[in-house]
Structures are given as C-alpha cells and as structure tokens.
Amino acid sequence: MNYEVIVVGGGPVGMWLAAELALARVSVCVIERLEEPSDQSRALTLHPRTLEMFDMRGLKERFMKLGRPIRTGHFSMLNTRLDFSVLDSSSNYTLFIPQVITEQVIEEHALKLGVVVHRGMEVVSVREQEQEQEQGVEVVSVCTSGPQANVAVMTATYVVGADGAGSIVRKQAGIAFPGTDTTLTAILADAELANPPESGVHSEYSERGGVMIAPVYPDIYRVILTTPRMMEIPKDVPVTLEEVQTGLYDLLGTDLGVSNPRWLSRFGNATRQAQTYRKGRILLAGDAAHIHFPAGGQGMNVGLQEVANLGWKLAGVIRGWAPDTLLNSYHDERYPVNTQFLRNTEVQTRLLDFTPAVLAHRQLHEEWFRHPEINRSMAEQISALDVCYPAAGNVPQHPLNGKRFADFELWLPDGMTSYAYDLLHEGRFVLLHLAQDTKISNELRHISLSHISYVEAVADELPVGWRDVHTVLIRPDGYIAWAISVKQTDISSVIKDGIVTLI
Ligand SMILES: Cc1cc2nc3c(=O)[nH]c(=O)nc-3n(C[C@H](O)[C@H](O)[C@H](O)COP(=O)(O)OP(=O)(O)OC[C@H]3O[C@@H](n4cnc5c(N)ncnc54)[C@H](O)[C@@H]3O)c2cc1C
C-alpha cells in the first residue's frame, strides 16, 4: 500500500497530525500497535494554546462540553497557583479533561476527514529507500494478534514517528536521543476515595512528602504522591495499593479510603530530546522527540502544538507549493521551543525534593509567584502562549512577524461578524486585508490558490500591535508569517506575480 504520509503511533499527537494532513488533502494512514484505544489517561489538561488551536479548527466547543475549565495551573506543586485568567486569550484557562476523551475526540475528527487507521499493527522496521527511482520510506509492520507471519509492507513519501518515548522510528532512523536518566520517581493512582478531600481537590508539600488529589471522573480520583523514600524507588517497580494507602496515611494521617484502583503507575524524570526532528524523509513528533517529568501538564499539549507546525509544511511539500527545505524549519522552529519547555520541567523537578535547601527554594518561589508579573510570565510559559518563531528574513520587518495570532472579532464584507479563528477552520493560510485599500485589494483578490484564503475585513477593535496593519498572512498553525504596515504601500516585497512569500 502506498500513502503520501505514514504516521507511526495513534496516540494524541500522531492522530492530530494525521487529521491536519487529511484536512490538507494528503493521503495519510496511522499505524497503531494497540487494537483498541488505551483506557488510561496520563494527561488531564488541555492548556490555553492547545485550546486556541482546537478553536482554529472548529473543535473547541466539543472539548469544552466534555471538560471542566480551571482558571489556574500549578508549578512544581507550589501553593501559589499560576493565574491563567489574566492571560490575553479567549481560552484563558486550562481545561481539565482525561487524555482518553481528548484522544477520542481527535480520532473521531481524523476519521471524519478520511484518515485510515490500521490498528493492531506494530511497526518493526522503517527504512528510507535511497535509490533514485524509488524515493520514499518503507515501513514493515506485524499484526499484534494472530500469527506473527502476518506482515504488512507499506511505503510512503514521508514517515512521521509519533510512537512515544521508546520510538522505533527514532531508533531505526539512527537519531540520537541525548539527555539524562531518571533520578527521582513519583507514583499515581486513579482510584476510588471513600473519603475524598472536602473540595474534591487537595495539594500539600512538606519535608515528609508531596501529594496532589483531583477528580478524574465522578467516582475516580487521581492521587499523585512522592516522599523522600518513595522518590528513590526505581521506575520499573510496580506500584501497589498498599503503597498508596501507606503514603497517604503518612502524609495526611488518613488513607482517604482509597480502593479499587483503575490504574497505578510510577513515573520518573528522565529528560531527553531527539538530536534532530528530521532525517531525510523521516520526522519525529511528541514523546518520540522529547521526554520529561510530567510537571505542569505540558507534554501532550506541546506534542499537539508541534504537529500543527509540521502538518501544513508536509502538506505544502507534498502538494508542491513549498520546497522540501521548508521541512527543515519544523526542527528549526520547534527544537528551541522544546528545549525551553524541557528546562522548565527540569526546574520544577529540582524543586521536588525534601532537603531544607530545596524547601527554602520552594518558599522563595512561592513568594516570587505572588508578584503578578512573575506569575503571569510563568503562566504564559506553561500555557505556551509565549511561543513565537523567528521572523522570516526576506520580508519587511514588522513587530508582529513570527508572533502568535490571537483571536478577535471582524466585520466581513457581507456585513456579518466573524471571529478571526473561524477563518482558519480549513487549515489554509489566511491573507487578511484590513486596510480597505482598493488598489491593493483588487490585486490581492486575483490570488486564488488552494492553500491560501484571501479575506477582506475590518475590525471595531484591533488587538495591541495591530493598529497599523494593512495586510497580514496568517499561517495555518496560527502564527503570523508577515504583516505589512499601512505605511508600506508597495506589497511587492511579499507578493509578486501572484506568488505569496510564506515563511
Ligand atoms: C503521569 C503522567 C501525567 C501526564 N499528564 C499530562 C498532562 O496533564 N498534560 C499533558 O499535556 N501531558 C501529560 N503527560 C504527558 C502525555 O501523556 C504525553 O506527552 C502524551 O501521551 C504524548 O503523546 P504521543 O502521541 O506523543 O505519545 P503516546 O501517547 O505515547 O502515543 C504513542 C502511540 O504509539 C503507539 N506505538 C508505539 N510503538 C509503536 C509501534 N512500534 N508500532 C505502532 N504503534 C506504536 C503506542 O501504542 C501509542 O498509542 C503526562 C504523562 C504522564 C506519565
């Protein structure tokens, strides 16, 4: 079987990438080892930038119906919460929603768009074909049930490994995964609590240990625990209910009547990042590209955001409206963003210790986070609203170039109002002309391209930094490729002979 793209791994990241590609009419399949979706929710949060991204595809409302918005987030289990409500976003909260539900919504969306999902197939070999006449990648999988002899060989122009931390794609491509091993562990239990905390949620941290409790489903709570003794237990030692009961009792003086665990797991702080996100026709995304301690609930969010960056680039190269070198910008843009995010999780992990020095550091951080500017700055990091990309070098400078595109209300020529994010539902670039400049708009109107929508609009109130904007090109992932100011009457620096500079 031949596809334009094969995505290995049908977790949240692989499935979202496949959906983005299908939206751009790329023929894509997902190969997933599990016969049925997992029933274990590692992630419980969708952060503001991820919600904005879903908003840009018309999916946010669906998630909102299934989750619970919470106005704050945490940093290293500190008592001073990060205030998301002050963030400059229409999604200024985190959505509490089990990963299982997030994955269901994404998979439904992907299937509707025509993504082919091969379940119960484990990829065992990924090999780039090097002969000129057969350029592509060969992927060999075996059925996970039935006779192992049941082998499938597929080929694709590009393969993306979204196959998690132990990624076979990364290993087969020979991409190094440098970083550090686990030095501390914590445990989680998704279980019933006969005597849950009064408000349903609880968090405390002292020299005896740290505990966080929150409801996952109406009858199931997540308990996260670590103590000075527990954090030294190797990651592969199974967690028992008794360990959870004893840990809770030691910290809270009660085990809260914990019983019937649905999932018990021990996780560690190994932190690694793939040396490159691209090698020839093979690319990596999500946990296959980076692992870390799950502090601040960021891993899945970051993976989803990075494949929004990759999806349109792969589509552009495959459809022929962008050169293959555009794919290098996936690594160039995302690697530094993720390096920063891994540092952030490492700092949080350093604060998870029980020595007097670390407890004093925690106290200092508590105080710092009471300052609104510091609190906001960290909230912007955890929510990923601070992410921006280097401005393209070959377009006129404008402060908005490379920045995140935030939603605002527009008036369209038919007299209807629209939210700017609605213009991105089809996953195309949006060439937005705001200046009502007839000479230019006549020229722009003739630009009819499969990957760019031309929109004329005006706004009663433009966001900060937008007042002088004449025309702006918004990328499918919601970042500003370039903006032209009203002082710049010559648009030929970005659009010449109908060719639009994209990046
Ligand atoms: C305790 C804990 C709590 C967390 N909480 C949060 C949180 O609140 N917020 C957040 O954003 N993140 C959180 N994370 C991180 C988040 O769960 C991961 O970052 C996310 O699941 C990564 O998604 P992925 O699709 O890249 O990889 P995965 O979810 O690991 O999916 C990879 C898929 O690939 C498949 N696969 C693997 N090998 C093969 C193969 N050879 N052939 C075919 N298929 C294969 C697997 O079966 C799997 O379905 C948490 C993690 C942990 C451990």
Automatic annotation (TrEMBL):
The keyword Flavoprotein applies. Keywords: FAD, Flavoprotein, Monooxygenase, Oxidoreductase. Its cofactor is FAD. Pfam families: FAD_binding_3 (PF01494), Rng_hyd_C (PF21274). Residues 3-345 form the FAD-binding domain. GO terms for molecular function: monooxygenase activity. The keyword Flavoprotein applies. Signal peptide: none annotated. This is Monooxygenase. It comes from Paenibacillus ottowii.
